[in-house]
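Researcher: Here's a chain I'd like modeled. Treat it as a single chain, no partners, no ligands.
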Amino acid sequence: MAGPRYRVSMRRRREGKTNYQSRLKLVLSGKPRLVVRASIHSIIVQVVEARLKGDKVLVSAHSSQLVKYGWKYNSGNIPSAYLVGYLCGLRAKDKKIKECVLDLGILVHKHRVYAAFKGFLDGGIEVPHGDSVFKKLNLESRINGTHIKDYAILIQKKDKKKYEREFSAYLKNGLDPSKITEDFDKIKNSITKKL
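Model: Modeled as a single isolated chain. Structure tokens:
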């Protein structure tokens, strides 16, 4: 019921895009924010500095940039999220950024967001956090794509048609999903060498 004291919240809050209370705390810290956003098909990791005239992106990485390093698998899965975070972390290190605060925003696609965060940490930048979230989500065993490899091997033995249907995009591109862990390690090494 609307009355004289009814106040319409800000547009981005109504759309579920910005939590202004948590954003204010992050901005007041005075440190650059590590912004991680995930959609179904892509991951974006940015280091952003708050300015009065608008935020300035200091460093960023997008999952589409992994192709340059040889990544041919899905650009929206957990291994690619980790690699994007790792790429952004190394770029931030090159720009002499030493620490950030994590800006999760309104959290969607939790596993991929935390995988990208883990990659950023492995890139060598300090971000205050607790390691319990990585253990809770069982990310250590999923970051390199072991879960995809295990599932592909299991389903290939049980039901060939289902395997071809579920991994059709991989097979169409000439990829073997059971080799994703090996390719992950190659791409990570490639990123490390090129930066």
